[in-house]
Amino acid sequence: MAMLSMPFSFSNLNLRRANRCSGKAFANAKGETAATAGGVRVTEGEGNLPKIVLTSPHGSEADIYLFGGCVTSWKVDGGKDLLFVRPDAVFNKKKPISGGIPHCFPQFGPGPIQQHGFARNMDWSIVDSENVEDIPVVTLELKDGPYSRAMWDFSFQALYKVILDTKSISTELRITNTDNKPFSFNTALHTYFCVSNINASLKISSYTCLNN
């Protein structure tokens, strides 16, 4: 079994004591149920698609669609959205959500399978949620199925963690090979930022790729 982990963060985040809540249940896109922690809730989004909303007591907020595991909104202290979603984006599962932080896996760009792979065209599941010192955290999971195997015949598990801090959002994508044969792949979080000045610079505080 091989595993590759790709953490990405806009700030350094020290996760210490976890305060978990388990009294609230919801149905995810596959009809399964899971518990949510404080600051993590599921609601109906565009196109009646299930959407996770992360909120912190400091006013920051993020939206994540289970379809494509796509973060579509990130606001700090009630301000303007820092992510961009194209005006012509559709929320009908017929094509990927155009904007936010879409997944590219197991292929980036054009190639032998569909553009940017299939991860952004599949329903992800919620496998964990927690609240770490008023910081909401949710973990999504994607596994192989008939749709993915029709174009890429490998067994895998993808875990995607999203952490909403007061002034930052952090993500971690972990790919595990659960097959009995090796495979190679490309992956990326193809982020769309909302900017008023196209010449503005962006500072990324942490980016690490680990091959375990």
UniProtKB/TrEMBL annotation:
One of its GO terms (molecular function) is carbohydrate binding. One of its GO terms (biological process) is carbohydrate metabolic process. It comes from the Eukaryota. GO terms for cellular component: cytoplasm. InterPro entries: Aldose_1/G6P_1-epimerase, Gal_mutarotase_sf_dom, GH-type_carb-bd. This is Uncharacterized protein MANES_02G095500. It comes from Rhizophora mucronata. The lineage of its organism: Eukaryota, Viridiplantae, Streptophyta, Embryophyta, Tracheophyta.
